[in-house]
Amino acid sequence: MQELLEKYDIPAPRYTSYPTVPYWEAETLPEKEWTDHVVQVFEHNHHLSLYIHLPFCERLCTYCGCNKHITTNHAVEPPYIKAVLAEWKMYLGLLPGRPVLSELHLGGGTPTFFHPENLRELLEAIFETVDIAPKHEFSFEAHPASTTEEHLEVLYELGFRRISIGVQDVDKDILQVIRRYQTIEQVKFVTETARFIGYDSVNFDLIFGLPFQKQKHIVKTMELVGNLMPDRIAFYSYAHVPWLKNGQRAFDENDLPNAVDKRELYEKGKELLEQMGYHNVGMDHFSLEKDALFQSAQTGVLHRNFMGYTPVFTPLTIGLGASAIGDTFSAFAQNLKTVAEYQNAVATGHLPLLRGHILTEDDMKIRQHILNLMCRYQTSWQPTDERDVILARLAEPAADGLVEIGCSGVRVTEKGKGYLRNICLAFDARYWAKMPSGRVFSQAV
Q1: Whole-model pTM?
Q2: 297 and 427 assigned to the same domain
Q3: How many degrees, rounded to 5, is the angle at CA 104 between CA 200 and CA 12?
């Protein structure tokens, strides 16, 4: 393991998109260029997904890499909702027909920062303007310390059936270091109440590689998992990027487990999850057989986007709110990041775009390869692939038993699943054409 980690634990993208955000070409994306792509894909299929970014948090969790706005002033909720609805109205004015909403995700920040009735106001206003697909997937992220029974009931009434609970770790000392203030009792309350109300799928977000984290902490967290048996687990590698997220400067590299110890944290967690009946589904994710995520992986329809892994694929995703990202599969666009900039831009009557990227034919081809690897652990050669170049980059992973290369394509081995980011990197033409000169990505392993 140490030899492999010395070789492969390098900075590399997580591939929630391709091209990855640092390689997007449009520092300022013209509104008309983006909306032309939105309309074009909508005309082929009126189904769409919505991602709504709700950025507010009452406290700063120092491990967090998300875009957030820290405040205890809940008076920020109504003007932000007003801005999100105004942005959505702009999109409605562009779309030639009534949208069919297939997927909706509330992300953050802390979506449960918002009062339940304010969430109801936001969502009911959107639902009045769309048809909801019969097999829709509505989900939200929940902080155990701020999620009430009223939150769960209101969102269930509005069609939400999946909840993602931010557990991270259960040890009080670890939570204190990362300033995540919650209790095991709160995690149990949210999980059990959601199940009692009728939610179909409960996910726990867990993190390995946190400061001072050891195997005993992973074991303790997995004991809670075994007691509550959530339907899904997202077992994320802690991404230490203090040059991007100042909150992570509360600790440094000396407080983090080294590469070998960090990998052993993952392997211990994976071992315990598999003993409990969870299956590895894509990078960092595990699922019980009864869950739609496992079933979509088995049938080959599992998809990955900025919202994570999903059993639902719609070519058009519209992102609403500060820093939200939209995706037409031919183009990406990200909104302005700060709440003030976002709300001011919307108030002018223009979409609050910060940057974006229009995909080339090569981008589209590589994106599909990376999606195949991320979701199905294999991909097939295409006639236009630069096969010799990719094979040269894969020679060492193949020699190390991470991939099997054949005449028809590439398959990730069981051993290679832990090095998926490195394998995808071999296909990333933009990375190799312009390798980062400074710190851009977190460590791959």
Answers
A1: 0.94
A2: no
A3: 100
